[in-house]
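Cont'd.
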Amino acid sequence: MIRIKPGATKALRDSSLQRNLRHTLVHSLQSRDLAIGDADDWEELRRYARDTKLHTLGRLHDYLVQLEDRVTQNGGQVVWAETAAEAVNFLIDLARREGVRRVVKSKTMLGEEIHVNEGLEAAGLEVVETDLGEYIVQLRGEAPSHIVTPASHLSKEQVAELFTDRLRMEPTDDVEELTATARRVLRRKFIEAELGISGVNFAVAETGTVVVVENEGNARLSTSIPRIHVALMGIEKVLPRAEDLPVFLKLLIRSATGQKITSYVNLISGPRRAGEVDGPDQFYLVIVDNGRSRMLDDPLLRQTLYCIRCGACLNVCPVFQRIGGHAYGSVYQGPIGAILTPQLLSAREAADHPFASSLCGACHEVCPVKIEIPEILLRLRARVKAEASGNRIERLVMAIWAWFMRSSSRYEVAARWLRRLYPVLVRGGRMRPPIPPLSLWQKERDLPVMPRRSFRELWEEESRRK
Amino acid sequence: MSRSRILGRLLKLRETGAPLPSPIPPSPTIHDRRERFRIEAEKVGTVVLEGRAIDRALTLILAEVGATRICWLGMDLFSKHHIPSLVDGPAETSGRTLLFSDHPDRKVDLPVRLRAEPYDLESLAEVAVSLGTAEWGISETGSTVESATRGGGRVGAILAPVHVALLREADLVGDHVELFSRVNLGAAESARILMTGPSRTADIEKILILGVHGPKRLYVVFTD
């Protein structure tokens, strides 16, 4: 089982991580707010996107068949993978069959989810990430810490140290020079690679077009220079029409980076055609399920599949802001990771995830496709508790709690009693002497000061005075 | 078989109650397309040149970036933008060919003297300036659209440190809604790209750096 607490505790005590997180998140939040302030039709766009997703998920069968049809007409091939292993094995077989030794990759969260790098490397292939942030975390042997900005947990000094060490670069912390070094190294990798792997932001069913959004140009090069291009998509990425793209591009890009549009939007419809000077000879679209069709079953949980991976819910989440991405111990982090991970794995394997939230609702407010993340978290919490074999003490405490909460008079008596007891036990924000397990609370924080009177009492007093 | 298992499950869960929303209409607020294009393009760091003859505009660019060689992406670019040209040597313009012109004194004269070479990735990767033709321009975001078809290719526009896109005012659409209702994706080409400003990254400490994998400088030249 993945535990969040050890990673979170470590993250909270890591002052350089705290500084890096604060720096990048403030930047991301501001850019997004400015970009959305610019779009007066934001609510209309969100509604449109949500309706489109609702419609499309109900007819995934039809749209995926149509997509397959069009991709084939465009000269590409569609491969279906029910599990992560199937997708990775297809890639390994393809590489063997085609004599591939070197692979370049542009960003794909699905690739992370199915652990494609590990799989291909174990088969003896060289796999190089080409997005700058992904390349940095790959060199460090780490997982991305954010679905949009994978290296946002690092400072430029840490990157400089890494490049000096691994790329034999002259020591510098000039970001311009660091970037130029990565450009030079990766340029060779593009030219030498035989296979390029990319993700898919959207796939248009009516035209068989795969859309890849990027700022650096690495996705363009990964999908065009090697003689084989494999695009990985989850079943939920399909959109019915080309006319849906303007809305989804606007929502995704403004939410993810705060830009009006990214530097590049690639619209790929198959392999190189007769008369074209470049492009891959072979194009494969791998459609991966890996647990997604299971989520369709439930109308609430199904919303998880609306996600367009913009990362806005991470940036705005008070938990993510403090603990960062790695603490989640999963491929997807933050609020979306908290609802996606238990469904992709199992409630038991990711039992901590639904609880790594204060249910403040900021993620739902910011979500461009309005996923009801807090509702889903509650549902998943219930699922974890139902599956857990049951902690007797916890059940007893909850039963007592429920008994007091069920009647207003019992509640008031208990509250009054607690208000008197509290100052005896807690002084200066600390419980003295500490009484476990209650004292666990104060390991990381001060206890609040208890007001002497309840809100009700204050309200009555106020009303009498008038 | 995975295909039938996945599709079988999806068929069982098929729900046709929710209708597809009707497409949103194009933005009514873009009045002067050319002016809006220029404003938006300049916001993201694109250099827009207009009101200059093509030879003057290209001479200016070569001087600015200190380059002596241009790779011309596309065969029909010359007729589309009325650029007189001559191909030296065997005029092999079919198949996989790249067109280069050399300007040792950083001056572009008309007609442009072109040299056709067989397609070679290494020589494409070394060229300082690539020049392509925009199929469309998008005023809303100051973007240009280039197609892989008709000799345009996919990577010429990304590999060079400087890219120039030639654009006609007649090819401007107001916004992305208009673009995607007019463009026929995949009908004639294997790839299109929407380009907006230079290649950029902010992956290290959110510090903006231009030219990470693609061009550091992007020019759009209006040819009418």
